[in-house]
Specification:
The complex is a heterodimer. By secondary structure, chain A is an alpha+beta fold. Chain A has helices at residues 12-22, 35-41, 77-82, 84-89, 91-97, 103-108, 111-116, 125-130, 229-233, 246-269, and strands at 5-7, 26-29, 48-51, 62-65, 68-72, 134-139, 142-147, 152-154, 157-158, 165-172, 178-185, 196-203, 207-213, 220-225. Chain A is 31% helix and 27% strand. In chain A, the strands form four sheets. A five-stranded antiparallel β-sheet of chain A has the order 4-5-10-6-7. Chain A has a four-stranded antiparallel β-sheet with strand order 11-12-13-14. Chain A is globular, with a radius of gyration of 18 Å. In chain B, 27% of the residues lie in helices and 23% in strands. In chain B, helix 9 (361-379) runs parallel beside helix 17. The chains are: A alpha+beta, B alpha+beta. The interface between A and B is medium-sized, with 23 and 29 residues.
Chain lengths: 270, 732
């Protein structure tokens, strides 16, 4: 591991100062489950690491306000999947967060970290897209909101500007009845990264929102109906890599789409 | 403790019991000190520098920036070693201790950095700049066989390092009713021991001491001494119990380089390899087997015509032995009136392949067992029945001039079939498969043991076996407890220090229970002879406890009784393997799987293992060894493979994309059964065990998948994508 400066500021102001001082070679440490791997492998060689866990006001809470479930940036996967409010409204997100890494990883990894890492295969990204998540971002200049559908720019790249920090993720609580589900394909049954993953939701009108991962440079959100699953999944642009071939991925999207829709329709009827 | 006594029961009290694993609690609580946990004062930390491709001509090495890093004490290249740079290896002295002029595999050390801290060593290593010209590598069986390919070792005439011809009868004139002919491939896989490979080398007044989690300390001592040009007496190997070896920690790799470095800096040097570096250091030979098998109308094998090409790496390591041993018994536990086996050990610009549980047999077994399944389908025979018709009877010779079948092998087959409910109708998308695996045992090897009966009646056993998790300490304790009639908690097994324990060839080939076990029994008998003589001399009866007897004999100054025992597997000049197989490791495996035909995902619903072990000295240990071995076999069957790019780099380097089975991947039901007819050459009629579990897993699972979804795949691993693709191909 290359030497780097380590900060553990207690105020947002100090965070922003550190981000500015060391930009662009600075990394934020929350759960650290992606960061540590890359620091050790040498893929990340930052000059500084800013640990945000002790920042005053840093939220590890899930709070419901004005039709929105606000998930603080400190909320771990374990916290997320055990929250009754998340279980009630966002079952696909629970399914996805439940298969991120192992138990030990889920005890550390944060939802915010999962999206900031911007892996095309991030398991929580498809359900968050389907649920219309919005990212709350802060910087020295102030605060702004970025719809998740505009957040991912490419593998490892996000719409976050230098000096910006994700503070929470908003999940709009569905106002109309909908059923949703998550599916993924892996190379083994235990802990694995997705060869491809998919989430969908369907409402009483038969409108389907679907998002898939590891099937394009970014997690992709598409819309259609129960009759247009093939057209929807055809919008994917999968590649071949060590985890799977493009043809397999493309075919699995349709398999997952059918299965996820079936589960979603079952949940809609409940 | 109650007083000990030297009245040995005729019936074993401890052997045959599932005594708890000696050291298990330390292993699972983290108290055990593995090699990487050792702290040696004043040690420098080592990091290797490599180039980013398999094969390169080294033009220049720039170390100025690295040398400027605080704490760096030595940057060593081939120029700093004796010239010509010593070459060494367990079988052939063909591996330079550091790359000289050219690299031959990705990960071969070119420069070594030693620094006061790991961070400094790593930073300095990243600052070493190696100018090199990439050269085209040889990466496949086909390329290695192509006479037009570059030579991996340029003093050789070709990349075919060794070629074996085994066989009998007359294959070409044999008349068969049905001939099955196919190609089978087996991937490169790596051992993935959970304990990291870690080494310390330290100069001392007598010469040098090396700490290494090596399975064969005496092989390491020989190889280091040869590299240094020293007598073996000046080299001391300390081998802490390995945390998983599987053959990957069997044979010396980087220890000679560390020895030179330690002597140069005059201080201890320590290297702990990362998992990624370990992937680049040890693997199993991949293989391509062309199999032509002839059967008569009743399904009896008429001939086996096998051509097995094993892809070794850049250096021989123990690879040629893997190839010869596996191909010698490649026809499996079956009669074959005519046989022709041609096998080759091929050099390539890849990680040197080494010993790996099963020692080449899984590669051959995948082909030969799958051939039987296809023949059964073509002849309208049941897959159990076709095996029943070909398995030799107990005592029957199945390889000419070799020890015959040493067990009632049909019993294993029938037991496995019954346990998997072979004849019960299957649910949709389910299938069953069965197969046998056979591995020859250790040939031409020797084990020595010392048993010290101390003045208070406790005992120390000194053994060169390494306990790498297989439970050798436990079994040896049980043997001594019975032989000396003392309690297990009065016995300590001392291992892993060549200055303390007597010679042992290796902890390999499932040989330790048989050979070291017999050596320990002989040592105990030697103790008992001396005890009897002492008793006679002091006029004591056999019921007098050891402590009292030795007190009466030695007086208050105390003394002890030392027994020496040995056992060996005879060296037979002219035998293709140097000696006959002392026993056969025979395994039957049967699986029931469910396949998702839309995704290709395989769910192993049931896996049963039947192992003919002669006698299980510790049934729990044998069963868990077989189960662990079988799960390891599921790895190469379903998911494990090292994927190379065109530069010879491993594309899935590390735990993220090299998949091994997790606890969620093990079968829903996993049962292991033992056949115990006390017909082996070891203690109480034991045979070796522990490798058997994985020998034939692939063919059993492959056959089950075939039955479930109707596709025959001949390339491992049987990944979901590969199964899905085969289903697509069949439908179009």
């Amino acid at each position: 591991m290359q030497p780097f400066a380590y900060f553990r500021p207690e105020s947002r102001g100090e965070v922003f100062a550190a981000l500015r001082e060391f930009a662009p070679d600075v990394r934020i440490l929350a759960g650290g489950t992606d960061l540590m791997v890359r620091l050790r492998s040498g893929r990340f060689r930052p000059n500084a690491v800013v640990d945000v866990k002790r920042v005053s006001g840093w939220s590890s809470q899930i709070v419901e306000t004005e039709g929105v479930l606000r998930v603080g940036a400190g909320v771990t996967m374990t916290d997320l999947v055990s929250a009754p409010s998340v279980q009630q409204h966002f079952p696909a997100l629970v399914e996805a967060a439940s298969v991120v890494g192992s138990v030990q990883i889920r005890n550390r990894a944060t939802l915010a970290g999962n999206i900031c890492n911007a892996s095309p295969a991030a398991d929580t990204a498809p359900p968050l897209l389907v649920y219309g998540a919005v990212v709350n971002v802060a910087s020295r200049a102030g605060e702004r909101q970025i719809p998740l559908s505009e957040f991912f720019l490419g593998p490892g790249r996000t719409a976050l500007a230098a000096g910006e920090l994700v503070e929470s993720i908003d999940l709009p609580i569905p106002v109309e009845a909908a059923g949703s589900a998550f599916q993924r394909i892996t190379r083994r049954r235990g802990v694995d990264l997705a060869t491809a993953n998919l989430s969908c939701s369907v409402n009483r009108a038969g409108e389907v929102r679907m998002a898939f991962g590891a099937a394009a440079p970014i997690p992709l959100l598409v819309t259609g109906t129960a009759a247009s699953l093939e057209e929807m999944t055809a919008q994917a642009r999968p590649i071949s890599d060590v985890r799977g071939g493009a043809a397999y991925r493309q075919a699995m999207l349709l398999v997952m789409a059918r299965r996820a829709l079936e589960v979603s329709l079952g949940r809609l009827r409940q | 403790m109650p007083p000990v006594n030297n009245l040995k029961d005729d019936k074993p009290k401890w052997v045959g019991q599932s005594l708890g694993r000696v050291g298990a609690e330390d292993r699972v609580t983290g108290r055990q000190k593995y090699a990487a946990d050792l702290r040696i004062d004043n040690a420098l930390q080592v990091k290797f520098v490599t180039v980013d491709c398999a094969r390169a001509r080294i033009i220049a090495i720039h170390t100025e920036a690295a040398a400027a890093v605080e704490g760096v004490r030595c940057i060593l290249t081939s120029a700093d070693l004796p010239q010509p740079v010593p070459k060494c290896g367990p079988a052939y002295d063909d591996r330079p201790v550091i790359a000289v002029g050219e690299t031959r595999f990705h990960g071969e050390p070119v420069v070594v950095v030693a620094a006061e801290t790991e961070d400094a060593a790593e930073l300095a290593a990243s600052l070493v700049r190696i100018e090199y010209e990439e050269l085209p590598p040889v990466l496949t069986v086909e390329a290695a066989l192509d006479p037009g390919s570059p030579l991996v070792q340029d003093h050789l005439q070709s990349n075919v390092l060794t070629e074996n011809h085994f066989g009998w009868g007359d294959v070409d004139s044999a008349q068969a009713h049905c001939i099955v002919e196919n190609d089978y491939t087996f991937p490169m896989v790596t051992h993935f021991a959970i304990e990291p490979h870690a080494f310390i080398a330290a100069p001392d007044p007598d010469g040098i001491t090396i700490w290494s989690p090596i399975q064969h300390p005496y092989v390491l001592r020989r190889v280091v001494a040869t590299a240094l040009g020293w007598p073996v007496a000046r080299v001391r190997i300390i081998a802490p119990d390995p945390g998983g070896g599987f053959g990957g920690k069997g044979w010396p790799k980087v220890e000679p380089l560390l020895a030179f470095l330690a002597l140069r800096v005059g201080r201890p040097v320590r290297l702990v390899m990362s998992l990624e570096e370990t992937f680049q250091a040890v693997r199993r030979a991949s293989a391509k087997v062309h199999a032509r098998t002839g059967f008569d109308a009743d399904g009896r094998i008429v001939f086996q015509d096998l051509e097995a090409n094993f892809l070794l790496g850049a250096y021989a390591d123990i690879g040629p032995r893997v190839v010869s041993k596996a191909s010698y018994s490649a026809c499996g536990p079956y009669r074959a009136p005519h046989a022709r086996v041609v096998s080759r050990a091929l050099l390539s610009h890849t990680t040197p392949s080494t010993a790996f549980r099963g020692f080449g047999t899984p590669q051959a077994s995948w082909a030969v067992e799958s051939q039987l399944n296809e023949a059964a389908a073509r002849l309208g025979l049941d897959r159990v029945e076709i095996r029943r018709r070909n398995v030799p009877a107990k005592g029957e010779e199945f390889i000419p001039n070799e020890n015959g079948a040493d067990g009632n092998w049909i019993e294993s087959l029938e037991k496995a079939a019954a346990a998997v409910a072979w004849d019960v109708p299957l649910a949709p998308n389910r299938g069953r498969g069965i197969s046998l695996g056979l591995k020859s045992s250790s040939t031409a090897s020797a084990s020595f043991a010392l048993v010290r009966l101390h003045h208070d009646g406790s005992a120390s056993v000194l053994s060169g076996t390494s306990d790498m998790g297989q439970g050798a300490r436990t079994v040896f304790t049980q043997i001594v407890a019975d032989e000396l009639a003392i309690e297990p908690d009065q016995i300590v097994v001392v291992m892993g220090d060549t200055s303390v324990v007597p010679f042992d060839s290796s902890t390999s080939a499932s040989r330790s229970t048989v050979f070291m076990g017999n050596a320990i029994i002989a040592a105990c008998k030697h103790v008992q002879e001396q005890v009897a003589a002492i008793a006679l001399e002091v006029g004591a009866g056999a019921e007098v406890p050891y402590e009292e007897l030795l007190r009466a004999y030695y007086g208050s100054a105390r003394g002890e009784v030392i027994g020496l025992g040995s056992a060996r597997s005879a060296y037979v000049p002219g035998h293709p393997l140097g000696g006959k197989s002392a026993f056969w490791e025979m395994m039957a495996a049967a699986a029931e799987v469910e396949v998702d035909p839309e995704t290709g995902m395989v769910d192993i619903r049931k896996l049963v293992l039947v192992s003919d072990v002669g006698k299980a000295l510790n049934p729990m240990q044998v069963e868990t060894q077989d189960e662990g071995s079988a799960v390891m076999g599921l790895g190469h069957t379903l998911m494990e493979q090292l994927l190379l790019d065109s530069h010879g780099r491993i594309r899935n380097l590390g735990a993220l994309d090299y998949r091994i089975p997790t606890i969620e991947d093990i079968p829903a039901e996993l049962h292991s059964f033992l056949i115990e007819n006390e017909d082996g050459p070891g203690p109480s009629g034991a045979k070796g065990a522990g490798e058997g579990g994985l020998l034939s897993i692939a063919a059993a699972v492959g056959s089950a998948i075939n039955q479930a979804v109707g596709v025959a795949i001949r390339d491992l691993p049987l990944t979901p994508e590969r199964i899905w693709q085969a289903i697509q191909d069949r439908q179009t």
